[in-house]
Amino acid sequence: MEKTDSRELILKTLADKACTKMDIYNKTKETFSKFKVHLKEIAEELQGKMGKVDECIIIEYKDNGDYEAEIRFAGDVLIFHMHTDIFDFDKSHGIWKSSYVNEENRLSYCGMINVYNFLANSLQYDRQNDIGYMIARIFINKEQHFFVEGKRQLGFLYNNFAKSIIDDKAIVSIIESAILYCLDFDLLTPPYDQVKEVRVAEMKEISSKTPIKTGKRLGFRFQADDDSIG
């Protein structure tokens, strides 16, 4: 291959792949900005209504920068985090079963927004050994089609990649589904034998920053493949 041919190929690949990825990044960033708007609106509306029922229950939104936002409700926190890279999928992934993806090049490239659930106390008291869980990840392509991999309703309500568009209605629905999932995802005590031994250093610190791990399913297998368990 001639030197000029190689450079032409480089330019063609950049125009095709790199420009596509930049377009997807910009659209994912735009979508994430909408997530922030709706997270704030939902938090304010729920707090206003909850305040009339029980003022002790706090629901609040926090903007953590360009790529992260959170909503706190009672003992839970949902953190929405936009990844800055663009992803393709392994050929074994179910996305390739869709004619929508196979008929046009680059439609499989997606931006990604991850959704994590933490205990509010884990963040408030800086318990760095505590565990959070990814409950969903949202994939968005250059046409703003999307699908969600996740737990329970998050995994089966939003999986029509060929037809689903990530508009305001879909964003609100995803947020509401994530909150409902967390409210039904309870903190369980770990097996006694797993926590019966405590080091002196741990006991000395237990009144402030607990070094003993806490998580909603700590000590139990997190049922990634069994949505009936949570």
Structure description:
The structure is a single chain. 38% of the residues lie in helices and 17% in strands. A hairpin with a 5-residue loop joins strand 5 and strand 6 (146-150). A six-stranded antiparallel beta sheet has the order 1-2-3-4-5-6. The protein has seven helices and six strands, in the order αβββαβαββαααα. The protein has helices spanning 3-50, 99-102, 120-124, 153-156, 168-183, 192-195, 200-205, and strands spanning 59-63, 68-73, 76-82, 111-119, 133-140, 146-150. The termini are far apart. Helix 1 (3-50) packs across helix 5. It is globular. The chain has 230 residues and is of the alpha+beta class. Residues 218-230 have low confidence and may be disordered. The chain has one domain (3-187).
Number of DSSP helices?
A: 7
Low-confidence stretches: 218-230
Oligomer: single chain
Strand order of the largest sheet: 1-2-3-4-5-6
Order of helices and strands: HEEEHEHEEHHHH
- What is the alpha-carbon Rg in Å? 21 Å
Please state roughly what percent of the residues sit in beta strands, choosing from under 5%, 5-15%, 15-25%, 25-35%, 35-45% or over 45%: 15-25%
Distance between the termini: 56 Å
Note the main sheet: 6 strands, antiparallel
Number of DSSP-assigned strands: 6
Shape: globular
Helix content: 25-40%
Structural class: alpha+beta
How many separate structural domains?
A: 1
Average pLDDT score: 85
